[in-house]
Amino acid sequence: MRVVPRAGRSGFAGLRAGAVLVRLAAAPVQGAANDELIALIARTLGVPKRDVAIVAGERARTKRVRVAGMSAAQVLACLAEAS
After folding, report:
1. How confident is the model over 31-48, as a mean pLDDT?
2. Would the pLDDT of 83 be above 80?
3. What is the tally of helices (H) and strands (E) in the chain?
4. For the stretch 29-48, what's the b/e string if a residue is b when 16 or more beta carbons lie within 10 angstroms of its beta carbon?
5. Which fold has domain 2-82?
6. Cα-to-chain-centroid distance, residue 79
């Protein structure tokens, strides 16, 4: 995932360079953008927030996210519908 913090509103904005582009209204201060990313993904996929985890890139704009109980293909398909 490629994250753009401080956007006008949060949401998915398609694909960029093979990564899902996510715009987040939160600033990258004290983990606020990461928290909002987890909440947005959980809400979109209909899973609890505890099932979504950032596994790489916690302090970077490019992140790897794991969703418990879903394959990467399922996650991408659901997020593609949302964007």
Report:
1. 94
2. no
3. 2, 5
4. eeeebbebbbebbbebbebe
5. Conserved Hypothetical Protein Mth637; Chain: A; (3.30.1200)
6. 9
Residue 69 burial (CB < 10 Å; 0-12/13-18/19+)? exposed
| Domain range list for the chain | 2-82
83 sits in which H/E element? none
Structure tokens at 73: 């293909």
Mean pLDDT of 13-34: 91
Instruction: Round to whole Å and give the CA distance between 78 and 35.
Output: 20
Side chain identity at 75, as an amino acid letter? Answer: V
Task: Please tell me which residue, 78 or 80, carries the higher pLDDT value.
Answer: 78
Residue 69: CB partners within 8 Å, gap ≥ 6?
Answer: 47, 51
